Amino acid sequence: MFLSTIEGSIDARGRVLVPNSFRAALEGASKFFLYPIAEGGGCLEGGGTQLMDGYRKIFSNLHPNDVHRRANVMAIFSNGSEVSMDQAGRANLPAALLAEAGIEKELLFVGAMDRFQIWNPDRFADYRKQMAEHAANNPDALAVPFYQSLGNSGQGGQS
Predict the structure, then answer these.
(1) Ranges of H-type helices in the chain
(2) pLDDT for the residue 110
(3) For a disulfide at 116, which of 2, 24, 45, 141, Cβ 3.0-4.6 Å?
């Protein structure tokens, strides 16, 4: 599980040190997958093979020409990148992805349960405030868990 918010920075060689706890959550893998968040939140989102296998499973249940499938495949797979880490846990993040997230040097690794995010610290401060306000204003939003709301068929609650 990806947990916590950890500061980092890009070194002179263009590398970032992936936090130990995040490397542990990747279960010893020497790579991870990274893509711009689909909602346009201004950050990068990533995870390991397990996360990507989950996406493949979900998308495989949709017709290949379904617009929702195509849009999400484009957002995650077409705009994403496989990132390798050296034995010390350093990784070169693609320049195009960094630019899209507004990251120049300083960054934050943010745990998000089964995935993680990489943020520009200023953007994250604004986002954290928005999410705290949303949580405070919607205390009953999690009364019915998301997966339960899908029903048994996995078809958006349709049986």
Answers:
(1) 20-25, 49-60, 67-73, 95-100, 121-137, 146-149
(2) 98
(3) 2
